[in-house]
DNA sequence: CATGGCGGTTCCCTATTTGTAACCGGGGTT
DNA sequence: AACCCCGGTTACAAATAGGGAACCGCCATG
C-alpha cells in the first residue's frame, strides 16, 4: 500500500486537510469570517446545511481550536459562534481558495465539457 | 432539507470545493507545482497514494483542466503530468493552504487534546 | 391545548469514498 | 521459465459521509 520513499510532510498535510478541508468546514469558516458572529440556526439557514451536519461540523471546528462557542443561557437559548485567532489565520488561505473557486468555476465547467466530448464521443 | 434564504455563492463554492477540494487533489497539485513534471509512479511513491486513487485523482484533475497528461509511447511507457495554466493559478491558494496546515498542525493537536480533556473526563 | 422556535442529539438508511488485491499488455532481466 | 517495471483498469469489501426524521427541554404565542 504505502510506498517507501514518501515525503515527510505529505502525511501531516494530509492529516490537517482531512480535518479542516471538507467543504462544510470551509463554508462555515468563510461565513464566520465574513459576518463575525453567527448563531446556530442563522448558519443553518444561510448555508443550507442539515442540522446534523452543522452540529458535527461546528463541534469539530471547536475541537480543533478554530471556532469559539459561546452559550447564553437565556430563554430561548442563544449560542453564538465566531472564529478564534487560529480560525482568523485560517481565513486567509481559505478565502483565497473560495475566491479562486468562484473565479474559475466557469473555466472548469468548460474544461469538463471539452474533456467529456473528446472521451465519451 | 435545504432552507430557503441561502447565500447565492454557497452552492457554487461548494461545487468547486467538492471537486478539487479533496486531499489527494490538493497534494497532487502541491507536488506538481513544486517539481514541475512528474511521472505516474513517481507521484505514487512520493505521495504514498494507492495506484487506484492516484489514477482517479489524475483523471479528475485532467478533466477539470488543471493537469496536463502527456503520454510517451516508449518502452516502457512513460506518462508525464504537469500543471496547466489554470493549475498554476490554483497553485497559489492551494500551497497557502498547505503551508497553513504545516504551520498550525501542532496548535490543532494541542487544541484537540485540551478539548478532549475538558469534555471526555 | 397545539404549535413553533432555539439548539441540539439520536437513529436509520443510503450513497459516496477509499483501500486491497488481482489482472492487463508488452517488453526487459536473470 | 519466472519475475519485475510501467501505467493503468476492474472487482470486491470496508469505512465513512451525509440526509431525513423524530425527539429533547424550555418557554412564548395563538
Automatic annotation (TrEMBL), chains A, B:
Keywords: DNA-binding, Transcription, Transcription regulation
Keyword Plastid: no
Organism superkingdom: Bacteria
Annotated HTH hxlR-type domain residues: 7-109
GO MF annotations in UniProt: DNA binding
InterPro entries: HTH_HxlR (IPR002577), WH-like_DNA-bd_sf (IPR036388), WH_DNA-bd_sf (IPR036390)
Protein name stated in the entry: Helix-turn-helix transcriptional regulator
Organism per entry: Aquicoccus porphyridii
Amino acid at each position: 500500500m504505502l510506498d517507501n520513499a514518501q515525503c515527510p510532510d505529505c502525511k501531516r498535510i494530509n492529516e490537517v486537510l482531512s480535518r479542516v478541508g471538507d467543504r462544510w468546514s470551509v463554508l462555515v469558516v468563510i461565513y464566520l469570517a465574513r459576518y463575525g458572529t453567527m448563531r446556530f440556526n442563522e448558519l443553518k439557514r444561510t448555508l443550507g446545511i442539515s442540522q446534523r451536519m452543522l452540529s458535527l461540523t461546528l463541534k469539530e471546528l471547536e475541537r480543533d481550536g478554530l471556532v469559539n462557542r459561546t452559550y447564553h443561557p437565556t430563554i430561548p437559548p442563544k449560542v453564538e459562534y465566531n472564529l478564534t485567532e487560529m480560525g482568523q489565520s485560517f481565513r486567509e488561505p481559505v478565502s483565497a481558495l473560495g475566491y479562486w473557486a468562484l473565479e474559475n468555476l466557469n473555466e472548469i465547467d468548460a474544461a469538463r465539457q471539452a474533456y467529456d466530448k473528446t472521451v465519451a464521443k
